[in-house]
Specification:
about 300 residues, elongated, MetI-like fold, single chain, mainly alpha
Length: about 300
């Protein structure tokens, strides 16, 4: 049994001609790294200059905008969040504040937060794409789901967090399901739009040739919707990071958000800067990795 081939030899030759060369890829990478270094250096300089202005204006400047040296001096204090293990005693159990403890606390918090985000986001992608394809292929389901999807998208996400805490407690399960709730609607709507924009002749030709539903999905729909779906999934990924941070800030134990909550409670602005920096790096790295992974997948499927 055959299905329509969406990748003709002519299209393959065009893709081969337009694919970036290894040299071009290296040049773009070097340029990107250089831009990041320049941007980061500029940010540090501006921050330091602003902190000098604040120091002359406020009585307690470190509570408003601490200087770079003040922030660096707070790094060792992050070891307060290490619960002990790996040959290092917890500070609350009589251990000393150490740089190693600070690194371990940040690493463990980043690992916990990332796992929660990935679990919720992956579940949202699986359910959202499957549901979106089913809805997108049926005009009746599209009409019936339009209102509920719009309502779910309009609900204030963080306002729903107390419900998840009530249902699941301040646990990892609550964070995962909250991430799922905050991203699945975006994935569903992006998938429905992508399916709706697939030329009807693709599915008609596949059905004429006797393609099963599984073949229709794997050989026709999935390759056709991925380019448009990519943007929606990237947006959902950024939402996922916001959702997991909100869940941890508002009660879920462990992770970068819980560390941030404790730093806010004790007005430890330097620690807050470090935790925020790690969170931003994780989010940016995940979006970049996802973009490159989906780009390679699209080229492979082409």
């Amino acid at each position: 049994m055959t299905t329509p081939d969406l990748t003709s030899p002519l299209r393959r030759r065009r893709l081969a001609r337009t694919a970036p060369s290894p040299f071009t890829t290296r040049v773009r990478t070097v340029t990107t790294v250089r831009s990041l270094v320049i941007g980061f250096t500029t940010l540090l300089v501006v921050w330091q200059l602003a902190s000098m202005v604040v120091a002359r204006t406020f009585a307690v400047p470190e509570q408003v905008l601490p200087s770079i040296p003040d922030i660096l001096g707070e790094f060792k204090g992050l070891s307060d969040y290490w619960k002990g293990g790996l040959g290092l005693k917890a500070v609350q159990d009589g251990g000393d504040q150490t740089y190693r403890g600070a690194v371990l606390a940040l690493a463990y918090g980043a690992w916990t937060t990332t796992l929660r985000m990935l679990a919720g986001f992956t579940l949202a992608c699986i359910v959202g794409i499957a549901l979106g394809i089913v809805i997108g292929l049926s005009a009746r389901l599209r009409r019936l789901s339009l209102g509920p999807l719009a309502l779910l998208a309009a609900l204030p996400l963080l306002a729903m967090l107390p419900l998840f805490s009530f249902w699941f407690g301040a646990t990892t399960k609550a964070a995962i399901w909250f991430v799922f709730y905050g991203t699945v609607v975006t994935v569903v709507r992006a998938t429905v739009n992508a399916v709706d924009n697939v030329p009807r002749r693709y599915t008609d030709q596949a059905r004429t040739l006797g393609a099963t539903r599984l073949q229709l999905f794997r050989r026709v729909l999935l390759p056709a919707i991925l380019p448009e779906l990519r943007a929606g999934l990237t947006l959902a990924l950024t939402f996922a990071w916001s959702m997991v941070l909100g869940a941890e800030l508002l009660g879920v134990q462990g992770g970068l958000g819980a560390m941030m909550s404790q730093a806010i409670e004790f007005s430890a602005l330097g620690r807050m800067v470090f935790i925020s920096g790690v969170f931003i790096i994780l989010a940016a790295a995940s979006v970049t990795a996802f973009s490159r992974l989906t780009g390679r997948l699209l080229r492979w499927m082409a």
